[in-house]
Amino acid sequence: xxxxxxxxxxxxxxxxxxxxxxxxxxxxxxxxxxxxxxxxxxxxxxxxxxxxxxxxxxxxxxxxxxxxxxxxxxxxxxxxxxxxxxxxxxxxxxxxxxxxxxxxxxxxxxxxxxxxxxxxxxxxxxxxxxxxxxxxxxxxxxxxxxxxxxxxxxxxxxxxxxxxxxxxxxxxxxxxxxxxxxxxxxxxxxxxxxxxxxxxxxxxxxxxxxxxxxxxxxxxxxxxxxxxxxxxxxxxxxxxxxxxxxxxxxxxxxxxxxxxxxxxxxxxxxxxxxxxxxxxxxxxxxxxxxxxxxxxxxxxxxxxxxxxxxxxxxxxxxxxxxxxxxxxxxxxxx
Length: 334
Fold this sequence. Notes:
- By secondary structure, this protein is α+β, with helices and mostly antiparallel strands.
- The protein has 2 domains: 5-235, 3-Layer(aba) Sandwich (Rossmann fold), CATH 3.40.50.300; 239-333, CATH 2.40.50.140.
- The protein is 25% helix and 32% strand.
- The strands form 4 sheets. Strands 7-8-9-3-10-11 form a 6-stranded mixed beta sheet, with helices on both faces. A 5-stranded antiparallel beta sheet has the order 2-1-4-5-6, covered by helices on one side.
């Protein structure tokens, strides 16, 4: 049984700057794992290390039980079963689409190479563009060719470095779905770098959050979102309501709801509530809050409301929003 990608205690320096500090993660074969973090957090450096383009000072990298790097091993990039697709597609401008796709399998004879290229042209739905030059393709088509070129080498691990970020939202979603379906069908362990939490939610069940070269937390996506172990992790996914338990008790009378695991506690603690857990409705003589701000997010809006006891809360609601700034509302929480 394939064990996928294992990264253990990787550390790396650029001169005197430590870019990665004891980073570990695991990606199962046939699954997608997101590496989430802001620009400069070390995401792309980790991908380059896994691909063999950078050398760490310590750590271990294995693919399906085979060691690619440790204290005594350092396989060359061309000898690693790893595919890498960048944000910039990096197609060879002087080669046709077919030649680009087949570039990494030049060790095969002409007939075998042609068969492989035809297979992946069909998978990416560009069968009629084999003799087309890269500059004649759209951005989405170029990205599909870059993916096919990586897949054609039949890697056991695929590294995707924000490959969809330059595409418009509809094309991005379609191409992302196609890409990840092909990778899952092939049983490839896929590590997707992104700075967008929404993308991470859409494509993966597990993720690793990295900040300043350190792993902040790794685990199931839903657990990280609904059960963060720190305010730092919670804030990565956007606005969140945070207040002390004493402040919450003060808020309970005007904000109906139930928190059973805090009943009777007197210790000072912090309560976090996601905005979508705050429910708003048009009051029926029972208003308890005022709308102070509204930000349109597309299918939803993020509202800032002030409870009558002067506690401010974020609430997320579906569009179209039936409230405007200054409206009185009734708020409760789930």
